[in-house]
Write a structure and sequence with these properties.
This protein has 145 residues and is mainly alpha-helical. 45% of the residues lie in helices and 6% in strands. It has a two-stranded antiparallel ribbon with strand order 1-2.
């Protein structure tokens, strides 16, 4: 599994909004300058994040974006699932119920399910507020990869 530029930049943008939440609406121009990401690329990311209501927008003078909820209500997993289209390490885990004809006899499926569970548990355990507070710990879930 590899996180795309869109996923990485979306997370950076959301952290920037969390850090600047007290300033009201934040312009994409300001985020782009601080994060060294093109404004045009941020516009594409905003289009993805704005649909599920993760952001609030304000147009015109003093316009921009802000988080729709508190920073502790957003997980890294939520953001990456939106921008990446999912976090499944193999295609057969991307749909529920599983569409793979071999699922009942696949010897490797438990490996991929285990990896998927580890990734989701870890990314869902980190909030934007944790990142802002620099409180991201590598939690031990009792296994080693």
């Amino acid at each position: 599994m590899k996180i795309s530029t869109k996923g990485r930049y979306a997370l950076r943008m959301m952290v920037d909004l969390a850090e600047n939440q007290g300033e009201g609406y934040v312009s994409l121009k300001d985020i782009a300058a601080r994060q060294e990401i093109s404004k045009k690329y941020l516009e594409q990311i905003v289009a993805v994040l704005n649909k599920p209501g993760m952001l609030r927008t304000n147009r015109g003078y003093q316009g921009g974006y802000r988080l729709a909820k508190n920073a502790n209500e957003y997980t890294v997993g939520d953001i990456l699932r939106l921008t990446e289209g999912g976090l499944a390490p193999v295609a057969c885990l991307e749909t529920t119920p599983m569409q793979c004809d071999r699922a009942d006899s696949c010897a490797t499926l438990p490996v991929w399910k285990g990896l998927y569970d580890v990734v989701n548990k870890y990314l869902d355990s980190i909030t934007l507020q944790d990142i802002v507070d620099n409180d991201v710990s590598t939690q031990n879930f009792g296994y080693v990869i």
